[in-house]
Amino acid sequence: MSESVFQSISSKLAPCACCTPPVTSRGNTMGRRDFLNWGAAGAMATGLALAAPGASWAGGGNYESTLFNCIDPRFTTLSWQYMGLLQGVSRDKLEDNYSHFVMAGGPIGAVHPKFEAWHKTYWDNLDVTVSLHKIKRVVGITHRDCGAAKLAFGEAAVSKRESETEAHGEALAAFREGVKKRHPKLSVITGVMDINGKVDLIG
Predict the structure, then answer these.
(1) From CA 53, how far away is CA 7, in angstroms rounded?
(2) What pLDDT digit, counting tens, does each position of 131-187 carry?
């Protein structure tokens, strides 16, 4: 294919964003060799899709749970490990078994007046994961020494373990009520995770 013919084809494809050959890293429109490489990549992607027709390419599926917890990086791996224990699967098989939503404070962020502007965001996302992933259970986990909890309740209210548990418990009760109100068929598990990953179930 000559460069002139290629440029003619490119100009005819230009009105369609999905078909327009992208600009290369050199800053110019693709040449013939770039175009062939681009086409090969597309063919490979198509082949992968055909090779795995059962895969959930549209983002749907049928899953057991959704996890809702805090943004605190200290609890990323601990939460993942807890979900593996909760669902009864080995650690190496846990990936892709549940949906996950993260917000400062986790359930506290979804119900406390301090974070009212966030509430709709969480509940809308819960609606989406119920619709797309057919989940059966919501797992709402807060954690000890939570910065968002201190903002919501005040540092004095969560300075001692007993009062911290009480404050978190009130938020988790409101969270469970919110889930049941919107999705009565879902089961709900709530708890407070310690720094070592141990979860005290509440409710």
Answers:
(1) 35
(2) 999 999 999 999 999 999 999 999 999 999 999 999 999 999 999 999 999 999 999
CB atoms closer than 10 angstroms to residue 112: 22
- The C-alpha atoms of residue 88 and residue 114 are separated, in whole angstroms, by 36
Burial of 70 (0-12, 13-18, 19+ CB in 10 A): buried
Instruction: Please enumerate in sequence order all residues whose Cβ is within 8 A of that of 147, keeping only pairs 6 or more positions apart, or say none.
Output: 72, 104
Long-range contacts of residues 41-44, Cβ cutoff 8 Å, at least 24 apart = none
Q: What CA–CA distance (Å, rounded) separates 31 from 82? A: 52
Tokens (6 digits) for 104: 């400062």
Coil, strand, or helix at residue 131? helix
> Would strands 137-143 and 65-69 be described as parallel, antiparallel, or unpaired?
parallel
- pLDDT, tens only, 105-115: 999 999 999 99
Residues 6 or more apart whose Cβ sits within 8 Å of residue 13: 19, 20, 21
**Tokens linked to 55:** 């895969």
Angle at 110 between CA 101 and CA 202, to 5 degrees: 90
Rounded Cα distance, 143 and 32, in Å? 56
